[in-house]
Amino acid sequence: MAAAGGAGFDPGLGPEGNGPYRLLRAGRERLIRRYLAALDDPRGAQEQRLSAVLAATRGSRFGEAHGLARVRTLDDLRRAVPVRTHEQLRPWLDRVSVGEDGVLTTDPVRQLLETSGTTGRPKHLPVTDPWAASIAEAQSLWVLAMVRDHEAAARGRALTVVSPAAHSRSPGGLPIGSNTGRMHLAQPWYVRARYPVPYRVFCMSPAPLRQYALLRFALEAQVTSLTTANPSTVLLLARRLVEWREELSADLADGTLRRGPAAALSWRERAPLELRLRKRPVPTDWRPAKLWPLSVVNCWKGGPAAYFCERLPEALGAELPVREVGITASEGYFAVPLGLDWGGGALWTIGHVLEFIGEDEQPRWAWELEVGERVRLVISTEAGLLRYDLQDTLEVIGRAKNTPVVRFVGKSGRYLNATGEKVTEGQVSEAMRRVARTLGVRPDGFTARLCWGEVPSIELAVEGEGLPLAGALAAAFDQALREVNVEYDDKRGSDRLGLPSVRALAAGSYAAWRARRVEEGAPEGQVKDPLIAVDEAEWARVVQALPGGRR
Length: 551
Known about the structure:
Blueprint: H1 19-26, H2 29-40, H3 42-57, H4 61-65, H5 74-80, H6 86-97, E1 111-115, E2 123-127, H7 129-149, E3 157-160, E4 168-169, E5 175-177, H8 179-186, H9 189-192, H10 199-202, H11 207-218, E6 223-227, H12 231-243, H13 245-254, H14 267-274, H15 288-291, E7 296-299, H16 305-309, H17 312-316, E8 322-324, E9 327-329, E10 332-336, E11 345-347, E12 353-357, E13 363-365, E14 374-380, E15 388-400, E16 403-411, E17 415-416, E18 423-424, H18 425-439, E19 445-451, E20 457-463, H19 470-484, H20 486-493, E21 501-505, H21 509-519, H22 536-544
Helix pairs in contact: 1-7, 2-3, 18-19, 19-20
């Protein structure tokens, strides 16, 4: 809970609480003591964490190349290893992907986690046992606090939406998949028993089939909590319930999985699933809060997610608590929210080494941060990502004891990011390059922006002669962007993002824009066409103020 004044946050992990909370807490006494001590002394916690990171990385090829054997202090680490983006670290990560041992750490790499990169290639991030243990500890504290505040969530079934833990293999034979699926499978059996949806459902394709089967199984259960990273997924499931209510009604009445998208299942695929289904009464109100005794929804609330969170009450059919799941990524877990009213999370100083770069581009440690400032997150993890620039912007909103509490603001730099797709300027450029090659056109300039709605989409402003009809250009751009950004492809495939639209601009529009920028004082040689407009004000300057803009 937040203390009076809003700047102090109480972790509230004491021994008193409801029965499920006390039971869970009994198995986490040592972790809680470590965590509370770290909140008091973030510097000491980070120094200890550095020792763990160095133990995993010193004997690696990366460690040898950077002299990690001589690193003893946090400041030593700064001198030995430069800050790198993912693209700058990619040559090392590629060596991991092809199966080379001991590249970033001396611990074996168990699998690779896939997420969108800043170019056409996705990121493939290593998982090691020490790294996975750190993530599990942070997650267990989050669950503990959630159960403390929402006892009913522990007394029903937990609907958790995840992606497959493995969908392919790297050139070196490592499984490639999602962190949500990995964590799902890593849970003990008694936790997995609370999940109403069989894991094999999350591995189904295409997306409508997966969503239909998920909802069919969820309708069998008394769901008391719904957890997914993006609130847009909750909105999508609410829309699907209405869209498929006739098909789901028939399958509920018959105890089957045979209607709607599930009609495409073969007998071999359907039979083991239907063994777990029973005949159920058909609902009259298909809003989630009316279908299930939901007590809490858990999802991201910061950055672009805030837009979707505002729409949850109407979609759910009730005002329900919405709890932040934390500042997390495939690279790690960085801040743990321990209260419903926390606008962010306390830095996870016993998990990874955390640095922060402010507007002055000078790195600082957790204990040096001030309330109110915005900083970029740089991490060093047990999986070998040392001084890795995550390119996430955080705002310090208070402290839990002596440890900063931060909220997610958005991706640093120029991104389009409505539901986690993180489309970069490089990806927009590559997608348009492919469109030009496929359609035989040469746009003179183009700019992309997000169009917000219940289903957001990208709008593309394009200048050029001989362009195809807007619909054809939009479809080609959509296909190309799906090829270069795996997260965008996933969101489009599950209808969390809509088809792009195109706005044609008159000839000379971008020349006029560049001339205006020079008149305003920008160095002519450094003026670049804006491939992404990150907000409405920039879009107005780039497109709406240009002559001849039309849809």
